[in-house]
Amino acid sequence: MLEVEGITKRFGALVALDNVSFKVNGGRLGIIGPNGAGKTTLFNVISGFLKPNSGKVKFNGKDITGLRPSKIAEMGLVRTFQILKVFKSLTVRENLSIISEDSRELLEIVDLWEKRDVLAGNLSQGEMRKLGIALALAKNPKMLLLDEPFSGLSPLECESLVEILKEVKTPMVIIEHKLGELFDLVDRVIVLNFGKIIFEGKPKDAVKDSKVVEAYIGEDYAQN
Ligand SMILES: Nc1ncnc2c1ncn2[C@@H]1O[C@H](COP(=O)(O)OP(=O)(O)OP(=O)(O)O)[C@@H](O)[C@H]1O
Ligand SMILES: [Mg+2]
Fold it and tell me: What is the pLDDT along the chain (224 residues), one digit of tens a residue?
């Protein structure tokens, strides 16, 4: 579905992405790596917010490199943002109704139906994140790009979001630092370090890989 071919992105002298290539054919893929590794830059390139210096992004066989973000989203490749823009003085349901007629079904999927009449401005972090997922799903995505969906959430909120995402059958690419939650969701993981892919494979093998342990995970996690 998604083919990333030799993407390089420079910011001045900094090479944020260095010849990155991978494919996603359904399922859920995790992207991990230290701060500044280039993960969000990769999403920005894929979703059209940044143009790469070289390389190609293809989605369902079509070259989407350099297309406008709105066009890419229309084609079914939809990303979520860490800071969700909603109308705080409208209710959960009203926010969703702006873009979808099926607000009930979507709110049930993300477990927010009970909160449908709450003003969006009064939602907790976890509920806000769920609303973000519902708004993304309202666009009928063929693939979702989630950038740190668990950041800032409590352990209970994380647990609840994991269960919700497990029920969503849309293929996903998920950037995340919370490895426990991520590894519960994905069957494959890519590790970025200084803009390069240093590992691709199963989560259980990633935590044992010496390059990954050295660059990111650390000895403690590897031993547990
Ligand atoms: N618009 C930009 N202009 C200049 N430098 C940038 C820009 N965006 C990102 N960078 C730099 O590119 C590198 C990769 O940043 P990026 O945000 O992709 O990292 P990340 O892997 O998402 O990190 P984190 O885990 O902290 O979110 C960093 O050194 C960052 O400072
Ligand atoms: Mg980032």
Answer: 999 999 999 999 999 999 999 999 999 999 999 999 999 999 999 999 999 999 999 999 999 999 999 999 999 999 987 777 889 999 999 999 998 888 999 999 999 999 999 999 999 999 999 999 999 999 999 999 999 999 999 999 999 999 999 999 999 999 999 999 999 999 999 999 999 999 999 999 999 999 999 999 875 565 54
Residue 105 falls inside a structural domain? no
Which ligand has the shortest distance to the CA of 35? 1
Ligand number nearest CA of 14 is 1
Put simply, whether the predicted model's pTM sits higher than 0.85 gets the answer yes
Is the distance from CB of 160 to CB of 128 less than 8 angstroms? no
CB atoms within 10 A of CB 101: 10
Does 135 reside within a domain?
Answer: no
Ligand 1 pocket at CB < 6 A: 11, 14, 16, 33, 35-41
Domain annotation covers residue 212: yes
Domain count, the chain: 1
Degrees (nearest 5) of the Cα angle 146, 144, 49?
Answer: 70
Residue 163 is part of a domain; what is its CATH number? 3.40.50.300
- Pocket probe for ligand 1: among 20, 41, 173, the residue whose CB has the most ligand atoms within 8 Å is 41
To test the pocket of ligand 1, the residue of 39, 42, 50, 79 to mutate (highest count of ligand atoms within 8 Å of its CB) is: 39
* Ligand 2 center to 40 CA (angstroms): 4
Q: Does residue 95 form part of some domain?
A: no
